[in-house]
Automatic annotation (TrEMBL):
The entry's keywords: Hydrolase
A Pfam family per the record: Abhydrolase_6
Coiled coil segments of this chain: none
Domain named AB hydrolase-1: residues: 82-309
Organism of provenance: Streptomyces luomodiensis
Keyword match Hydrolase: yes
Region (Disordered): 1-66, 318-346
KW Hydrolase (keyword) present: yes
Record's compositionally biased regions (Low complexity): 14-54, 318-340
Gene Ontology MF annotations: hydrolase activity
Identification of the protein by name: Alpha/beta fold hydrolase
Amino acid sequence: MGRSPAGARARVPASRAGHRPAAAATAGTEPSARTPQARAADAPADPPRAAARPEGPRRAARAGAPVPVALSHEVHGDGPGLVLLHGVGLDRRMWDRCLPALAARHRVTLVDLRGHGDSPPAAAGVSLAELAADVGALLSGPTHVVGFSLGALVAQRLGLDRPDLTASLTLVSSVADRSAEERAAVARRQELAAQDFGASARAAVDRWFSPAWREREPQLARQVLDTLLANDRACYLACYRVFGTADGELWPGLPRIAAPTVAVTGERDPGSTPAMSHRLAERIPGGRAVIVAGARHLLPLECPQELTDVILAHTGNAAGNPTGAPAGNPSGAATGTPTGQESHRS
């Protein structure tokens, strides 16, 4: 996925010894394991841009709580804390197009979730609570949590388990309360991933990219496909199982979320549908839904301006800005407005 023009990135690798090396993928081939030394040789030799947080979990696990692992992460900017969580099979690079605008207003932490990128592997049976505990261990106080797809489910779990750490929630392209038919479709996609991982990855890119977008940015579509193919298969399947089932686990508890919440999705997202975002807004007290006209699933890459406008308006409002207006927009009118389709719950 394309890198941000904002400059070099300060990276903090996972501190746990023996974390999985990511696999390399080339066009038309299946990935093969690569050594950490080979990965380091391929990495761009950019100078650090920002001081990163210390490695490892910042707080000890409470009695009976999941034991977190140390996530690979990087930090940019200054201001109120904001953490960005990616989707299943992707990594923190998916936020590159949103990062400059967000880092101009916030201290932004990007993470690779367990089982992804440079973070430790995810074992079979990993739970949503464990993924959320990993993120919580990085946070030192109330933080604006922005999650995409699987990351949005992690954000909801964090909002329930650690309300002291969640200043606000932005749920991007989130599933919610799937129907029996929708659950069956997700189960079929998981089965395809287990039987033919390459075909599963190509089908995902076909769902996410419209023909017109793919024609405009064929290299981006290829990069997203390569990222999917580079996943450790066992880790991917373990995390996909969480993605495929966790909305049912979360649904009964959503009315207990206290953080200001906005759910945003694409008008043409076939999996994380507008109806799901509206259901989240109705289920979570004070929730709002925003639907981005004409967009599919990958809002951080397809519509970064519209998405960052929603995020910054929401974090500004949660911090007490009476208009919720991004800097430079004192009128409070959103720039690059999505559709204006919103639902609210008091």
